[in-house]
Amino acid sequence: MERSIRPTSGSLNSLLVLEVAVRHASLSRAAAELGLSQPAVSRHISTLEDRLRQPLFERNNNRITPTANADRLAAAVALGLGHVDQAWSEVLAAPETNEVTLACTFGFADQWLMPRYSDLRAYLGGGRVRVVTTDQLGDIDLSRLDAAVVWDPARMPERPYFPLIAAETFPVCSPRFLEAHPEAAADITQLPPELFLHFDTGSSGFLTWEGWFAKAGLPQPRLGTAAEFDAYPFLLQSVRRGEGIGLGWSGIADHALACGEVLRLGPAVSDRPHSYFLQHRVPGAGASALARMLEWFKHQADPRHLPPGTD
């Protein structure tokens, strides 16, 4: 059976260029994303306009505005690319093995995962888990990994997920610090600015000191301008040494609290229901390492925060 020639034949590259140009509403930004020159992008757009016999952008000096038909075509291209990307990932995916790769932040690995790591290995029954740690989750291709502990699952809406930890933020200090600054137990707003330790929350959306004071309904004191810690284990180590007070999060500070290394120094506040989610690819049939790891994480998650029907 002979396949008819598609009307878009010969225009696929130009349609890809159109999608990027419409998304940015800029030929120069489209050129930068695609690694092309701006004249090359303009030629692709002109080719489409000639074939369609209509303009696709309204031009006003150096600004361009997509027409309704350009928006319609770009949306169709984006939808088609999404289907292609999904099929590509499925074809590329390796067969189920006895190894699973998990990505998470340094703080989550150090304070939540490591105290439970032996239990996870035992639960996998000989399966191997490879942990990739980074506080820049946005810089790695999570689609190439089996699972990731993320702050925002919306980045990969095609992947299932479930919540792990409720979002609760509270100040913490060491017993040594409280002995040296007993006034902090009654009112931390009176502490000097340099004793407030800061963590670079990046794109996580976690509360900073300013957000915590606002949510707690307390007057915000003067806060220090010292450099922020760019990894949470470093800040927590500074807190343990009695160098100041920092913010702790449920799940991440629990181990240090249970060991008595740090103490709560104020109320817990929340700005959203959950702080961490376990997002993963759909495991294949059989008792793969990924399937067992997902079971283990669901056992570890607070059942109050799991969606109905999650076993």
Helices and strands, with pairings:
Blueprint: H1 12-24, H2 27-34, H3 38-52, E1 57-60, E2 63-66, H4 68-92, E3 99-104, H5 106-113, H6 117-124, E4 128-133, E5 147-150, E6 161-166, E7 169-173, H7 175-180, H8 209-216, H9 232-240, E8 246-249, H10 254-258, E9 263-264, E10 274-280, H11 289-300
Parallel strand pairs: 3-4, 3-5
Antiparallel strand pairs: 1-2, 5-10, 6-10, 7-8, 7-9
Helix pairs in contact: 1-2, 1-3, 1-4, 2-3
Structure description:
The protein has helices spanning 12-24, 27-34, 38-52, 68-92, 106-113, 117-124, 175-180, 209-216, 232-240, 254-258, 289-300, and strands at 57-60, 63-66, 99-104, 128-133, 147-150, 161-166, 169-173, 246-249, 263-264, 274-280. With 311 residues, the protein is an alpha+beta fold. The protein folds into 3 domains: 12-92, Arc Repressor Mutant, subunit A; 99-159 and 283-305, Periplasmic binding protein-like II (D-Maltodextrin-Binding Protein, domain 2, 3-Layer(aba) Sandwich); 169-264, Periplasmic binding protein-like II (D-Maltodextrin-Binding Protein, domain 2), CATH 3.40.190. The strands form 3 sheets. Strands 4-3-5-10-6 form a 5-stranded mixed sheet. Strands 8-7-9 form a 3-stranded antiparallel sheet. A hairpin with a 2-residue loop joins strand 1 and strand 2 (63-66). The longest helix has 25 residues, at 68-92. Residues 1-5 and 304-311 have low confidence and may be disordered. It holds the Pfam family HTH_1. Residues 12-67 form the HTH lysR-type domain. Belongs to the LysR transcriptional regulatory family. GO terms for molecular function: DNA binding; DNA-binding transcription factor activity. Keywords: DNA-binding, Transcription, Transcription regulation.
